[in-house]
Amino acid sequence: AQSVTQLGSHVSVSEGALVLLRCNYSSSVPPYLFWYVQYPNQGLQLLLKYTTGATLVKGINGFEAEFKKSETSFHLTKPSAHMSDAAEYFCAVSDRGSQGNLIFGKGTKLSVKP
Amino acid sequence: NAGVTQTPKFRILKIGQSMTLQCAQDMNHNYMYWYRQDPGMGLKLIYYSVGAGITDKGEVPNGYNVSRSTTEDFPLRLELAAPSQTSVYFCASSYLGTGLPGELFFGEGSRLTVL
After folding, report:
1. Chain B touched by A73 (CB under 8 Å)
2. Which of A44, A50, B10, B112 is buried deepest, with most CB atoms within 10 A?
3. What is the pLDDT of residue A51?
4. pLDDT digits (tens, 9 = 90+) for A77-103
5. Is A31's Cβ below 8 Å from some Cβ in B?
6. What contacts A109, CB < 8 A, 6 or more positions away?
């Protein structure tokens, strides 16, 4: 069965510092991969996704992620954190042909210190 | 531009009561989903629907029922509420037309407490 592991339930960075949120997946074939963000008391919204093609994917708000098949990873990065980036981030995976059903990781809460 | 609308936003139930969480989308999406979110556990799929009249179980369907009589609406029914159903429930929708997974659009959530 597919699974997603997010390393670190809570990550804290200083404003302006690099953001790195880790995600590893298990799958027998390359899946579709997603990062979602959830701001307090809101639903999730898509940050970026990898389906096919270029392995470095750019998303909204300056975030990007790189699909590394050899490492079964899809880590999320942003060069310079902003206070508004404080939120919970979820990595998700979807099997090709799974009718779009997503398997979510447990989430990583990002705090940004001034 | 409403997107996905969930009602109610908050509800407190007593053990054994029943209720329906409503979900409506105005984007003409064919796929709809119900997830529950528990602290530190991510989101778990309860039920999903690939179109009107078609529903299927997700990972955690026990204690819930759904129906999809129209493209727009996908209500989630809780029968005989139990404390284990205390959670935040999210409805989502997406459009799958080319075989590639579409973006899921989420509602703002319904926070349910069972006492």
Report:
1. no
2. A44
3. 85
4. 999 999 999 999 999 998 766 666 788
5. no
6. A9, A10, A11, A87, A88, A89
